[in-house]
Amino acid sequence: MAKKDVLFLLPYPLHKAPSQRFRVENLLFLLEEAGLQYELAPFLAEQTWAVLYRKGNVLQKAAGIAGSFLKRWGTVLFTAHRYRYVFIHREAAPLGPPLVEWFLKVSGKRFIYDFDDAIWIPNTSAENRIASLVKSFWKVRYLCKWSYKTAGGNDFLCSFARSSGAKDVSRIPTVVNTDTRYNRLKQHRDNALTIGWTGSHSTLKFIDELVPVLQELQQQYDFTFLVIADKKPDLPLERWAFCPWNEQTEIEDLLKIDIGVMPLKDDAWSEGKCGFKLIQYLALGIPVVANSTGVNKYIVAEGQNGYLADDAASWKTALEKLLNDREKRSRFGAAGRNRIVAEYSIAAQKENFLRLFS
C-alpha cells in the first residue's frame, strides 16, 4: 500500500486553540494545493477540552485524558506507519514524558516538530495546578533533538531548538490569511474609541500590568477597554466590555478595536511569545502599543505602525498619542497592514511551510 503524506498529532480539538488553528489548521489548504494527503489526530476530545481549564470536574478530566491516551497510542501503533511524516504541534500528549515521540524515533519514523511558545518553562493556570505536577516541561528539549525537522515561531525558540541538538530548524512565524480572512482595513473615527486586547485565559494575567494606566487615562479620555477571550476577567475599570471569543465573529469583533495592546513581562517565557496579537491587529489596520519584549520589537516599527512601551509613563504617552490623532491611527494601521502582508501572511510563509514536507 502506498504511503500517505502527513499525519498530524495535535494537542487540542479542532477550531479551539489559537496556536493550533493558525499554525496548522489554517495552513492545511496549502498541502491540498500541493497534492499532499494528510490526516488530523487531535489528542483532547471536545468534551474534555470544555472542562479542562475549569475548577473541579476532576473525575471527568481524568477519564477524558485517559481515553485520549488510549486513542493516541492506537493512532501511533496502528496508523502512523502509513504516513511518510508525522507532524507534532507542541507535544503528542499534554501530560507525562515524551513516550510517543520516543517510540516514533526508535521506530524510525520521521517526525516534524512545531512549537510557538517557550513551553519548556512552566506556565500553568491556577485552575490546573494538579496537571502542572505531571507535565514534563523538560521534554521539549528532547523533541527538538529527536525531530527530523523543527519549526519555531521566532528566533528565540529556534535558538533553543538548535541548542537542544535539532538538526534542521526553520523559523516560521505564526501567520494569518490576508487574502480571504484578514482582508479588511479598520475604518478609523474620531469618537467612541476602543482600546482592545485579545487572547486566551493563559495570558489574561498580563492585562493587570496595564490596568493602572487605563484607569488614569479613563479620567481624561472617553474610551472603552475591550477584552476578547475565552474567559471573562474581573477588571476595576469604569468602561470596559467583554466579548467571548468566537471563530465565526472573530474578524468583526477585532474590528471594534481602534488601538490594539499587547502587554508582557520581561522574562524568558515572554521571549518565547510570537507576537500574534500584534499580527492580528496590524493585519486589520489597527495600530498597536506593546512591550518591547522578544519578537514585539521586530513586528512593531516604532512611530510607523505603533509604539513600544515598557513602563507606565511610556504606555500612557503612547496611548495618548493614538487616542488624540485619528489620522495617525489610520496611517499607522495602513503601514501595519503592509508589514503583515509582506512578512506575516500565509502567502509570505507558504514556501517555508511546504519545505517542511520536502
Description:
There is one protein chain. The protein is an alpha/beta fold and about 350 residues long. It has two domains: about 170 residues, Rossmann fold (3-Layer(aba) Sandwich), CATH 3.40.50.2000; about 150 residues, 3-Layer(aba) Sandwich (Rossmann fold). The chain is about 40% helix and about 15% strand. The protein has 16 helices and twelve strands. It has a six-stranded parallel sheet with strand order 2-1-3-4-5-6, covered by helices on one side. β7, α9 and β8 form a beta-alpha-beta unit. α9 packs across α14 and α12 packs across α15. The longest helix has 21 residues. It starts with a strand and ends with a helix.
Characterize the largest beta sheet: strand count, sense, and whether it forms a barrel: 6 strands, parallel
> What's the architecture of the largest domain, going by CATH?
3-Layer(aba) Sandwich
SSE series: EHHEHHEHEHHEHEEHEEHEHHEHEHHH
Q: Which structural class matches the secondary elements?
A: alpha/beta
Quickly list its features.
Rossmann fold; 2 domains; six-stranded parallel β-sheet; alpha/beta; 358 residues
Could you provide a short overview of the structure?
This protein has 358 residues and is α/β, with parallel strands linked by helices.
How is the topology of this model organized?
Layout: E1 4-10, H1 18-23, H2 28-33, E2 38-42, H3 46-52, H4 58-78, E3 83-89, H5 99-106, E4 111-115, H6 129-134, H7 139-146, E5 149-152, H8 155-163, E6 169-171, E7 193-198, H9 211-218, E8 223-229, E9 240-244, H10 250-254, E10 259-262, H11 268-271, H12 276-283, E11 288-290, H13 296-299, E12 306-308, H14 312-323, H15 326-343, H16 346-355
Parallel strand pairs: 1-2, 1-3, 3-4, 4-5, 5-6, 7-8, 7-10, 8-9, 10-11, 11-12
Helix pairs in contact: 3-4, 9-14, 12-15
